[in-house]
């Protein structure tokens, strides 16, 4: 028969192992929740936490917001499977582009986000990202292609040095880019929509 002390030690060890396994499983579940299953990028919640840490530690941090161009046409013409293939490819390319100097995420739909640790060579880095996204994606024998509109904001340059303020500024910059035609002029239809919705935007901004 086991001595009482040895029995207690074995029970304590088993209990500790059980808690360790439970903690590991919980960590795995949380990790999966914070990773977008389609792209492998951080979800909005996971990215927000990471980005807030980057902004706190790096004064020259830059928030980059990106929205895919032509993605709806891919979905409408080739189906959601093709759309998912494009999203997965963009996720891989954004991860490779980010490296160790940036943290990328997917906010939802075809909207992506990234926080750079510094603004070194920013124009060149953004141009490289745009080129990477434009690379064709082959899905079930069909070649698919999208572009991306990018907007940036440096939290340190804003009156309110927060992630929320940076995202709003980057969003404004992104839609300014997205609303322009190939020659750098704002597309008339999008410009008209923005003029029509301006009073509503101002109203909600004032009442928010």
Notes on the structure:
The protein has 208 residues and is of the alpha+beta class. The protein has one domain (33-207): Alpha-Beta Plaits (2-Layer Sandwich), CATH 3.30.70.270. It is built from seven helices and six strands. It has helices at residues 4-33, 44-57, 71-78, 80-98, 122-134, 163-178, 188-207; strands at 62-69, 102-108, 111-116, 137-139, 142-144, 147-153. The chain has a four-stranded antiparallel beta sheet, sandwiched between helices. A hairpin with a 2-residue loop joins β4 (137-139) and β5 (142-144). α3 (71-78) runs antiparallel to α4 and α4 (80-98) runs antiparallel to α5 (122-134). The longest helix is centred in the N-terminal third of the chain and has 30 residues, at 4-33. It is flat and about 80 Å long. Mean pLDDT is 81; it is low at 26-32 and 181-208.
SSE topology:
Elements: H1 4-33, H2 44-57, E1 62-69, H3 71-78, H4 80-98, E2 102-108, E3 111-116, H5 122-134, E4 137-139, E5 142-144, E6 147-153, H6 163-178, H7 188-207
Antiparallel strand pairs: 1-3, 1-6, 2-3, 4-5
Sequence stretches where pLDDT stays below 50 over 5 or more residues:
26-32, 181-208
Strands of the widest sheet, in order across it, are: 2-3-1-6
The shape is: flat
Number of DSSP strand runs:
6
Helix run count: 7
Predict the CATH topology. Answer: Alpha-Beta Plaits
Instruction: Give the termini distance in whole angstroms.
Output: 72 Å
Radius of gyration: 23 Å
Mean pLDDT: 81
